[in-house]
Design brief:
The complex is a heterodimer of chains A (296) and B (141). Chain A is α/β, with parallel strands linked by helices and 296 residues long. Helix content of chain A is 26%, strand content 13%. In chain A, strands 1-5-4-2-3 form a five-stranded parallel β-sheet. In chain A, strands 6-10-9-7-8 form a five-stranded parallel β-sheet. In chain A, strand 2, helix 2 and strand 3 form a beta-alpha-beta unit. In chain A, helix 4 crosses helix 9. Chain B is α+β, with helices and mostly antiparallel strands and 141 residues long. Chain B has six helices and three strands, in the order H-E-E-E-H-H-H-H-H. In chain B, strand 1 and strand 2 form a beta hairpin. In chain B, helix 1 crosses helix 2 and helix 2 packs across helix 6. The termini of chain B are far apart. Chains A and B meet through helix 2 of A and helix 1, helix 2 and helix 6 of B.
Chain lengths: 296, 141
């Protein structure tokens, strides 16, 4: 499993101690001090795709998750060349420190962190509290879209050791030593809904969850201000459900975005060594012929 | 409309909301919201003597898409009859707003129109009820 850069350079002054990899979190004040740092590139990744245009952190570029990281034909992410094109467009070098932030508790920022880790970028950070905290502190936003000189970014082949496929999930069912985390809402977990409230109820033929999965909604890892909960709170949240670091853990949701947030929490904040994100998630599992499910 | 044009169209409505604010002596005044979401929007309308929506206003809070859609709906419905408004299609509205951008948030995109349609329906039912009552009242007098 790839490791993220271990350095204290990006550690925010007020980041709570005790996280396994505190260097992957930066506070808003750190970002404010590095707006003009040529070695830092800030990327906004939102669930609300209009937010960036309403104003963003000065110098930040926009990651549009609908188009930038999805292959338009296959049900897959962009390939190595596609990722290189993206990073080159933003002028990101292999040694550039990338700071991700976004709306809704850094939902898509963490999703991007997982993706960029898979693509092999080593210098990744999340701005703790995301867009919500930056705005709440009255920090500057701009509508000016920056343009950077293209880089010659070189990416390795994606490391899929942090990604689970349906065969991987099938192989874990009812076996000790594995932990499945369903990070969707309780209504989706029980099968009452197929998607979150207010979202199109589509994508899967059936409702329910993968047998043996524990329901720990992704957003329970965040405080009301969008920052991550303390390490003690997070240990309790997952440990009480039997999701412990000695297990091979697979997280899933509907299409792997919310579960990437939980992947981030488990691997980066709690230091779990073996966690994979099943991005096929319920949209794939709930449609598979003869796939076992539980529906209370 | 391509994706970027749709974003710019919605952004224009979000940042320059048309017909924003309360409407006095409105025929229609109805608040709508999405449970579990921060979108709360009130739609107002006043019909003229020809039965057409002469003034339509909105106010409220919500995400970018719900606010932009509310602004657009006020432009879309002005001059329509109650029946025409009730017959408006949510699918057509989503097309107008840019399906590719709003398809993941249909409840936000359709909140304003849904609220206005309910309010207009209530108004029309009240009018019908008043018309039904009128001859009876005349007889009683």
């Amino acid at each position: 499993m790839p490791e993220t850069e271990a350095t204290t350079a990006g550690q925010g002054q007020s980041t709570p101690a005790g996280y396994a990899h505190p260097e992957v979190l930066v506070e808003t004040d750190w970002v404010a001090e590095h707006l003009n740092d040529p070695n830092v590139r800030i990327i906004e990744a939102d669930e609300d795709v209009l937010l960036y245009e309403t104003g963003h952190i000065p110098g930040a570029v926009k990651l549009d998750w609908h188009v930038d990281v999805q292959d338009p034909v296959t049900r897959d992410f962009v390939d190595r060349e596609g990722f290189e094109r993206l990073m080159r467009r933003w002028g990101i070098r292999n040694d550039t420190t990338v700071v991700l932030y976004g709306d809704r508790n850094n939902w898509y920022a963490c999703y991007s962190f997982w993706l960029f880790t898979m693509y092999g970028h080593k210098h990744l950070k999340i701005m703790n509290g995301g867009r919500q905290k930056w705005e709440a502190e009255g920090r500057p936003l701009t509508k000016e879209v920056p343009h950077y000189e293209p880089s010659d970014y070189q990416a390795p082949e994606p490391d899929e050791s942090i990604r689970a496929f349906r065969e991987d999930v099938l192989a874990t069912l009812h076996k000790p030593g594995y932990g499945l985390v369903d990070v969707r809402s309780p209504q989706e977990y029980t099968g009452e809904l197929i998607h979150m409230v207010n979202y199109p109820q589509e994508g899967a033929q059936r409702g329910g969850h993968i047998p043996g999965a524990k329901n720990i909604p992704w957003s329970t890892a965040a405080n009301p201000d969008g920052t991550f909960k303390s390490v003690e709170e997070l240990r309790k949240l997952y440990g009480e459900q039997g999701i412990t670091p000695d297990k091979d853990v697979i997280t899933y949701c509907r299409i792997g975005e919310r579960s990437a947030h939980t992947w981030f929490v488990l691997t980066q904040l709690l230091g779990y060594p073996r966690v994979r994100n099943y991005d096929g998630s319920w949209t794939e599992w709930g449609n598979m012929v003869r796939a076992p499910i539980e529906k209370p | 409309m391509d994706r970027q044009e749709a974003i710019e169209f919605l952004l224009d409505h979000y940042e320059n909301p048309r017909n924003y604010g309360p409407l006095e002596e409105a025929d229609v005044s109805l608040k709508g919201g999405n449970p579990g979401c921060a979108d709360v929007i009130t739609m107002y309308g006043r019909f003229d003597e020809q039965g057409r929506l002469a003034q339509v206003q909105w106010e409220g809070e919500g995400c970018t898409i719900s606010r932009a859609a509310a602004s657009y709906v006020t432009e879309l419905t002005r001059g329509m009859t109650a029946e025409e408004i009730e017959n408006l299609s949510f699918e057509d509205l989503i097309e107008d707003l840019g399906r590719e951008v709003v398809m993941t948030r249909p409840t936000c995109a359709t909140l304003a129109l849904g609220t206005l349609k309910r309010g207009v329906h209530e108004y029309r039912m009240r009018k019908l009820s008043q018309q039904d009552d009128a001859p009876q009242q005349a007889q009683e007098q």
